[in-house]
Queue: 2 jobs
Job 1
Amino acid sequence: MRYHLVPLGCQMNQSDAERIMTVLEEAGYSRCDREEDADLLGVISCSVRQRAIDKVYSKIHLWNTWKAKRPLLTFVSGCILPEDREKLLKRFDLLFSINELPQVPEMIRQYGVVTPPPAAPPTPPPLGDTPDIREGFWQVTPSYTSTIEAYVPIQNGCDKFCTFCAVPYTRGREVSRPSGEIIAEVRRLVESGYRTITLLGQNVNSYGLDQRSEEVRFSELLRRIGEETRGADVWIYFTSPHPRDMGDDVLEVIARYPTLANQIHLPIQSGDDKVLIRMNRNYRLSGYRRVVESVRRILPEATLFTDIIVGFTGETEEQFQHTREAMEEFRYNMAYIAQYSPRPGAASARWADDVPQEEKRRRLHVLTEVLERTALDHNSRLAGTEVTVLLDGYDRKPGFFSGKTEGRTPVRLPVADGYHPGMFVRAAVTDVRPLSIAATIRSAL
Ligand code: SF4
């Protein structure tokens, strides 16, 4: 019996897929690359973009046409809005939340016996309404899809309720994974030779603050991971933090432990206070600025990444200009800039999407130009220096490795004898571009 999985969306869904794979393999299924060859077909759904939702429906439409010709079992899991569950259950054979993963082999055996669809409008699920993710899901050993880079979930769900986001409705309220399990997983990965580990959560730095948690704070979790990985050849990252919960304690721990990487992802979303209020981000530009100042003071070598939405409902030209000015001020190394589109189930989907598409494109273009300028300025300082690079694969251009610096700047390096992906190397920077650099390997580390 063979299975094929289609994970959509973010790193969290990719990480969830690695645990789903383990459970399916323990249930006797083996992975196949082509969906045409599979007996069990599953999609890990993402509710963030309409495009992803459309893909879920197009997949199941195709798979259901195959059902007429051969036995086939289909399932859907991942981020699913409560009001979509019933619609999806009519099309898929099984629907389960990741919390229910340990019960999936039994569901497959009793094909058709699935959890009842909650017919609730998009309100946050009350505590205790769904199986506890801490009892089963996180104990599954993932089938890691890389031998170099691994993701370790430390938390699930979100309590922040940004108006443009549906995560609190699809994944529920925040739950922190027990720190002992996280550290044990990190230890296993380091012993197996993994070179980067990314701690994952919708809101990683509110780790330990959720109502049901008896866990330590995020800075203490990082400190324990720093101790555990002391002297190891690994870079530890985390994503995504929320600016409101980013205290100096977190940054000071990163400064103390060399394995905690010098890279901070700090989503700003908008540089205008009125827009931030309508986004329900719970910080103002002045508060965000204080966090950036702390990053620059405590971690002067760190690269700074962000997320930005342009054309949020009602965003005026003046408000957009505040975002542009914030980008100029904070001088990011990388920014993931998205044109606003209403996300089904999110509060802002009820408001008019009133910034014309053409205008959103223009605003994105303006910010991209700022990003390229500031990122090039950062990278120019690396020209002629030596940097440490993790070789993480082969470049699309034949004869070149791909790699990343500790700050996650992409690097292209000519292949050299005796070197292979998974190695840390010292490399001389030979060329710089806005979002990447070129370098030549000097020695192994
Ligand atoms: S912090 Fe906001 S954007 Fe991030 S997952 Fe929570 S609600 Fe969504």
Job 2
Amino acid sequence: MTIEYNVLAPGPVNLHPRVQEALSRPMIHHRTPEFDRILAGVHKKLKTLFQTSEPVFVLSSTGSGGMEALLVNTMNQGDQILGIDSGKFGERWCEMAQVYGAQVQTMKLPWGEPVKVSAVQDHLTKNPQIKIVLCQACETSSGVIHPIEALGKMINEKFPETLFLVDGITALGAMPLPMDDWKIDGLVGGSQKAFMLPTGLSLVAFSKKAWKKVEQNNTPRFYFDLRKELKANQKGETFFSSNVTLIRALDVVLDLIFEKGLDAHFAEIHQRAEFTRQFGQKMGMSLFAKAPSDSLTALNVPAGIDSQKIRTELEKKHHITVMGGQDQARGKILRIGHMGYIQPEQMVDLMMKLGQTLHAEDPSLCPPGLMNKLETEMKKFWGLV
Ligand SMILES: Cc1ncc(COP(=O)(O)O)c(C=O)c1O
């Protein structure tokens, strides 16, 4: 028997019925006029979503592959790179740059804290040889958002030779991240997050400034050599075999987003985040991130509660998937995702079941009287009563 889970994790996410239908269509070959038409449409729509005049690439890889593609196409071995490390994914990107031979200077931040633009500016002023700055737009391990617009504009204005690469894997498609306007030089998104698909595609683009580096750097690359992909895309193809099934479903997702309108789509995700932040606090939890993102909310569970146990119970008993904390936040936080196909009733159900689960662990938490009152408030929030 297949259990239907309500996947409210910060990726992967619940799939829209139209996406599920697209994923189940019969196979077609990638060298066909039908697929060529789909690919051309996807490339065009992605440019609108990235808000860039430069080409956007669809790679058959997880998000980490896209992060690697941004690096290997723009860095030279031996380059000095500043990596903003505010959690698990910042740490991964720094490590990746080191593996490819960069000299990485790490700006390590306490989990949940956004980076200060002035600190980055000071660091670059003192280290003018830095060629690339790496930053997550949203660091998924803590749910924090970083000031990408201010960072991009500052780097572009004060350090015009430095590139700003952004991991938008849990941000792109969930919140505004206009690449050209915010002076982002390399941007990556991931299919299982705000692109509302299964895992398996990364989406990347470079600014005009970054393209100059792509054309001439000495880092060995093959699969992620995007010069080859650009040439193939210009002929209406992908260089390697295309991920037909996911690209066809991506086409449907992009239509769904643009039918709704980008602003309305972002507003929906924002409302889910507002809901979780408000009611999570009313249920005795606090926000882990000092600058909380709209993509996910990280809630500190009350003292004495193991968040890992709560997430397991929610999944086992109620078939609701949320995530616990990683590394230093393990057992301490719950991470609730706001991306994907989510109905207001599912958000209410999650909070009610979370209340019950906390109450079962510690009867002083989320007593039935409080939860009954909050249920009415939650329904009012969504206009369900
Ligand atoms: C911010 C961020 N960067 C990178 C990744 C890695 O993506 P993937 O697991 O698709 O390789 C994730 C995945 O959760 C992420 O949230």
